[in-house]
Amino acid sequence: MKTDSLVGAESNGHAETEALPALDEPQVAPRVRRGFSRAQLIGFGLLLLMAALPIPFGDFGFFVGQYALVYAILGMSVVVVTGYAGLISLMPYSFAGVGAMTTGVAMASWGWPFWLAALLSAVATVPIAVLVGISSVRLKGLYLAIATLTFSNALGETLFKWDAFTGGQSGWATVRPAVGPVNFNSDIWFYVLCLGVVFALLIMIEGLRTSRIGRAMLAVRDNELEAQALGINVYKTKLTAFVIGGMVAGLGGAFLAALVQLVTPTGFQSPIAEATSILLVTLVAIGGMDRAIGAFFGAVSLVVQQQVFQGAEFFYAFVGIYAAAVLILFLMFRPGGLVQVGKIQVALIRHRPVLGLAIVFAIVAVNVGLAWLFVSLSS
Amino acid sequence: MSLLRTRDLTLRFGGIAALDEVDISVEENEIVGILGPNGAGKSTLFNTISGFLKPEHGRILFYEDQINHLLPYERVAAGIGRTFQHVRLFRNLTVYENLLVAQHRHLSSGAFAAMLRLPGWRKDEREAERRVEEILDVVNLRPWRDAHPSQLSYGTTRFLELAAVLSLQPKVLLLDEPASGIQQKEVEALGPMLKQVKEERGCSIVLIEHDMGLLLNTSERIYALDFGQVIAEGTPDEVVQNERVLESYLGRTRRDDLART
Fold first, then answer.
1. pLDDT of residue A24
2. Distance CA B179, CA A39 (A)
3. Within B79-153, where are the H helices?
4. Do B81 and A229 touch (CB under 8 A)?
5. Which CA distances in Å does A161 have to A141, A265, A372?
6. pLDDT score, position B234
7. How far A1 CA lies from chain B's nearest CA (Å)?
8. If residue B57 lies in a helix (H) or strand (E), which one and from where to where?
């Protein structure tokens, strides 16, 4: 609103200030990315808020928060593969498994420090991503989904049953990392660490979006023929998305290993691996597919819901039904997920503050009310 | 030396010959028209030249080099640009982003440079933005910079597609019915614009067009296709006088109409 008053009497509201530049306007210099835009500052603010969010809930808050953040990392792999490049891969959790197990074997068996193990975890996914990518990235839609599901199953039967890699039934014990005197062993510090990693990845994945390769991915997702006609190597672009997605998931797997501190292979075998992969795709669909921040929103909403209602026994089924209903509504009316809802709400609040805020309040009230109802009924 | 040449280009769909021993050649800095009724094989010819379809036999020569083995994006890199009969573009990207995508082959930074925001990525982005800002002014699309293609008129999306393909800096431009579905005023602007593109950029244009006025006034040479065969070749005047062309495409009754155009 401040900008409006600065423009002064000539301007009469948003329409003027946001008007498109006139045709005869002298050529604008290319935008130089220095300093931070308003959107970025709002992002910083939101993240600080997120950092403080678990505080009122104490240890439980940080425990749930860590899960949400690790799932946000895993979700960002889905953003690259499915959101950017439009490839429906149902094996992100298998890549997370490769990362988690690599971290396990490197730390427990070879005595590597966490940071080195995490780096190796990201790299270790590359050969598998290339192998899977070469053989199936040319498939379309449903067929690719089935192929990746099969690969997930196959990895569960081979790699995740190879005792030298998985540590057998007992798995690997991992230790949470330390940087000099700061030990991230406690839930609070590990939460802060994960927040930092998520933030760094947000910047990286958003950076990818505004780059030659990232735009090629968006183009391939929208229209493969036109992408080819504009000189894009569709196959290589898809493969790149698959490899980057695998690496992000592998890194997420390393943090998953540090989070649980004991990695066993059963979680990466059928059917848990497939179910968790589908969950990851779902949470990104809720959060917003084609924005890195969508993975964050989706992970927070879904993991918080899951963890909070873990003990809700009978009513957990209702939670599931509610979540499914919300997902279906999102896919039908808001394919852009929470990111899109947020954008629409912000625009609405700008033009009709009372109505906009009332809707936000209603959404929050319904959800908190339902949460309270489920929890109180089951205890 | 021809810029682009096809030799005995043949492609059958089932038993039907979409292309039957097609020989065409395009010289440098020339506008060539392709004339023919629906199903004559015009778009198939474009799809084969641009690598979207593989010919059964026959050769495609670009600067006298055979390019049959090149994939579509490699032919773009070689200098063959094309548009589609139905405008495609990227529906979920803005006009600006659509044009940025078209800068792909002029840039070089990789994915990791972008993720780590290295100087190479920064340099690339500035270069791409500078070029696109320039193009926006050239094609008068600046008012729609942040609009999505679905918000534009069909004619404007045609110009956007043309701008995107032109930013590939092709040596030869294959335009598949650029005037279809656009307003008469825009059709009239298209002819001079194509000639201007040819003059200023020194690029050849191959034009499939059903708008006879545009085709005859713009092309320097015309090939007439029917049933996948070249049935006539020559200047616009020669081709419209050709008996086979009149029979297959124009119909004898329209002969007098045409004489007036």
1. 38
2. 41
3. 95-101, 111-115, 119-138
4. yes
5. 29, 7, 42
6. 93
7. 22
8. strand B57-62
pLDDT at B251: 63
Taking residues B93-110, what's their average pLDDT?
A: 92
Confidence label for A263 from pLDDT (cuts 50, 70 and 90): very high
Cβ-contact A289, A82 below 8 angstroms: yes
Using alpha carbons, list the distances in angstroms from residue A350 to A62, A297, B219: 34, 22, 54
The three-class DSSP label of residue B162 is helix
Using a CB-CB cut-off of 8 Å, the residues of chain A touching B168 are 230-231
C-alpha of A105 from chain center: 26
Peptide bond into A271 cis (omega under 30): yes
CB-CB under 8 Å, B90 with A226 = yes
Task: Please choose, from the candidates B116, B248, B260, B99, the residue with its C-alpha nearest in 3D space to the C-alpha of residue A204.
Answer: B116
Q: How far is B100 from chain A (nearest CA, A)?
A: 8
Pick one of 1.10.8, 1.10.3470, 3.30.70, 1.50.10 as the CATH number of A36-288+298-308: 1.10.3470
- Residue in A207, A225, A230 closest to B168 by CB: A230
Contacts of A31 in chain B (CB under 8 A): 129
pLDDT at A32: 45
Angle at A206 between CA A203 and CA A208, to 5 degrees: 110
Residue with tokens 């798995």: A171
A136, two tokens: 């199936």
Distance from CA of B5 to the nearest CA of A (A): 20
The burial of A90, by beta-carbon neighbours within 10 Å (0-12 exposed, 13-18 middle, 19 or more buried), is given as: buried
> What digits encode the pLDDT tens for the residues A112-161?
999 999 999 999 999 999 999 999 988 988 999 999 999 999 999 999 99
Distance from CA of B261 to the nearest CA of A (A): 34
CA A272 – CA A276 distance, rounded (Å): 6
pLDDT of residue A15: 35
Q: Give the pair of three-digit tokens for residue A259.
A: 């989070």
The pLDDT tens digits of the residues spanning A233-254 come to 999 999 999 999 999 999 999 9
Give me A343's structure tokens. 């954008």
Question: Per-domain residue ranges for chain B?
Answer: 1-79+170-261, 91-168
List the single range of A215-219, A286-290, B74-78 with lowest mean pLDDT: A286-290
Please give the backbone phi and psi of residue A61, each rounded to the nearest 5 degrees, phi first. -60, -45
Does domain B1-79+170-261 bear CATH number 3.90.1150.150?
A: no
Residue A104's SS3 state is helix
Residue A274 has pLDDT above 50, yes or no: yes
Using a 10 angstrom Cβ sphere, with 0-12 exposed, 13-18 middle and 19 or more buried, the burial of residue B111 is buried
Query: For position A187, what pLDDT does the model report?
Result: 83
Looking at the partner chain, which of A208, A218, A222 has a beta carbon nearest the beta carbon of B111? A208
Residue of B55, B42, B51 whose CA lies nearest to B10: B55
